[in-house]
Each structure stands twice: as C-alpha cells, then as structure tokens.
Amino acid sequence: MIRRYFISDDLDDLEAIEHELEAKGIDTPQIHVLSEQDAEVELHHLHEVSPVLKSDVVHSTEVGAVVGVILAAVVLLVAYFSGWTDTAAGWVPFIFLAIVVLGFCTWEGGFIGIQEPNIHFKRFQQVLSEGKHVLFIDIEPAQEAVVKKVVRRHPKLQNAGTGEAAPGWVVRAQIYFKRFVKAMP
C-alpha cells in the first residue's frame, strides 16, 4: 500500500471527497483527516486520526524497546563474562535486572514519544498550525486511478506527496471489523 497526502482548508470539500472515495470502493479505514480542529472534523463526520496516533508514541516505544533489548543483553553479557553468574545468586538477579532495563527503556521511549508529533506527520506541522487539514489515503496500486479521478474534480485540494502507508493487513482487519460490527444486531 502507498499513502497519498493532500492539503485543504475546506472541510466541506474533504467531506465530499471522502463520500466520493467511499462510493468508488475505497473503504473508510483507508481515509483519514489530520487536523488540529478535531471538533470541526467530527462535525463533518470525517474519519479523523486518533489522538494517540497523532503523537509518536508507537514509533518511540518501538525504538525504546530495541534500545532496551540491547541494554538487557549487555547486562546479561557483563554478568556472564564477569563471573557474577557463578555465585550463589546465579542468573536470577541479572535476568530480573535485564527485564527491568527492557521495561524501563520501552516505557521511557513511549513517554518521550507521547510528547512528540508522529514522525510521519512532522512535515505538516506548519500547515496544521495555519488551520489547514491533511487528507491522507492508504491505497493499493489498483486504486490509484480512482483517487486521481476524484482528486481532479476538487481543484482546492493540493497534492502533498506520498508516504509509508499502514500495513495492508491492518487496514484489512479494520475493514473486516467494521463489517462485523455492522452485521451485529
């Protein structure tokens, strides 16, 4: 999948675009509007970006976990090569310390990330602070023509490039979950 970004200052236009895309077979979980005006986005019934995804918490937690795994391995290696594991205490305190180091680094990464804008949206901070909105659409290559056709009918929409999309399996899971919820009585 690929992510297409567009900028607009007209939520009515974005609402029309979202309806057109959905009518042409692009599912709602593929379409998002990033804005600092969350209440206005909700009033227009647009699929907004959740607050947790506006921050860099997911990416930073992953980075923290990688750092934690490395440091935990260092703790275990130092304990082994220093001969500390040959004492009466054995491996237990060092394994416990490695788990604590891993947990702390993961937590700290998430804590840092929650204070930062999402790494994929940093380039739009200036545009968002000007009161504009970012529409992004995660599409399969076969859907490219549909998006181009809809976008051509909306001259106020500015192309803002491409980026890394959500994994296809995540989008499909959201689509199937939405269908499942609708089927419930």
UniProtKB/TrEMBL annotation:
Membrane spanning residue stretches: 63-82, 88-114
Keyword entries, A-Z: Membrane, Transmembrane, Transmembrane helix
Domain of life of the native organism: Bacteria
Stated name of the protein: NAD/FAD-utilizing enzyme
Organism: Alkalimonas delamerensis
